[in-house]
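User: two proteins, same treatment. go.

Assistant:
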Amino acid sequence: MSKKITKNKRIFLDKIIQNKKYSFEEAFLLLKETNFVKFDSSVDISVRLNINTRLPDQMLRGSVLLPHGTGRKIKILALVTKDKELESKKAGADYVGLDDYIEKIKSGWKGMDIIVAMPTVMSQLSPIGKILGPIGLMPNPKMETISMNPKELIRAIRLGKIIFKADRYGIVHSSIGKISFNCKDLLDNVQSFMNQIIKNKPSSSKGTYIKSIYLSTTMSFGLLVDLKSLVKK
């Protein structure tokens, strides 16, 4: 039995022009116009790439500083040595420590959105690698979540730095702001995000790299958008 479409979703569908590739600005305006929820929805992007993530040289991951942040409160866990605990806390980490948090993670705790770590503690994280790896939380140099200077890394995350990774289907999902953001700020964020996706293109990826891009809010359907509508910077 098919799911019944709500009245608000029907209004959204009625406004969509089938098979149209919207400009990013058109898509943002349409998402704003049809946002019926009472909370400040996230604006999300899904980028389908022509990559095979089963091949080690085509696994795509990285980070980017969104100029206007995501508008979301990120819970940061800093796994650091004792001498870096206080400065990590002052920099904005929600949870700071090492051994106690390793044990909590072993017990199933997942109260963080991102984990930063120092290279000197990485050997101690091997017991939780199989837990954190599949959910994309294992600190990794390619995702720039490992640093000898954790306070600077934490500050960058607080300023709007996000981590991204392609899933097994070659799709990168990310939040790029809130529906309350003005269109210019959303455009700035998506420009920075797409620039980094393009910059991180695996050299072994052949053919059309970006297959499709969709924008949506927390409760909406996706809108197909045209990469060419972004002004190159």
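Protein 2:
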Amino acid sequence: EFDTAVFTNLTQDHLDYHKTLENYMLAKAKLFDHVSEKGCKQGKTAVVNIDDAAGATMLAHAECQHLTYAIEKEADLRATDILVHANGAEFVLHHESFGEMKLSLHITGIFNVYNVMSAVGAALSEHIDASVIKEALEAFTAVPGRFELVKAGQDFSIIVDYAHTPDGVENVLKTARKIAKKRIIAVFGCGGDRDRTKRPIMGRLAAELADVVIATSDNPRTEDPAFILSQVEEGVEEAIGTKHHELIVDRRQAIYRAVEMAEKDDIVVILGKGHENYQILKDKTIHFDDKEEARAAVAAKLAEKN
């Protein structure tokens, strides 16, 4: 029996299973059917992002108290005066229970402003005091593998992120662009045995939003990694123009190549695996951690310089 259900957004993912976005949306809506069911608990709440068009569907399925949140639209919980920078974000939250809450956070990106609002909405639904919410948020530093900085003594930035959908790639690269002093070098791939339609889309977005693109393997599973990259390449070719791009099947080599190319104040963005410390191949699963590989690549580069 659910007390509180939260809807963040609907983006292209899992279509290998759901086939259409409509089916995927209705699958998410089942959570709000469940939170509406009669049970032994009172005061159930649906916390919904109404800036996302699918939010209306979730609200229609939620026969319980609603708590809406948004940046663009009028909502129960709203963020204004948003300032996003390399090391964090500042904004003001508005809700009738506390008026205004000024936040200074250690996480960055507009997508994290939405994530914070979803968490605040859930906390308010559980009757947590606003002062406790503010203290917890401002003490929080990072989620492993989500826009996580890798610091290994280099004079350029390395960011590791789990983004493995078109929406995720777009959000992370746009956030990186806001803080970039020089080039963005994107390393990314697409998983095997999953939705193939997103591969060229992710390739095109990387080509549009980064300065250098290195397409590589993610978790190829039973598919041929070279075939997956050929589908990614279709999208890259649409938008790459005169920018530099490479296809490197071996993910370790791709990360080392990106670090090798990086110059002072560039940003290397390694997308797709984030917190995962493994890679799923056709016949086995191996240990593989993007952060470890990035640190090793930096160490090799610094050793070569010295």
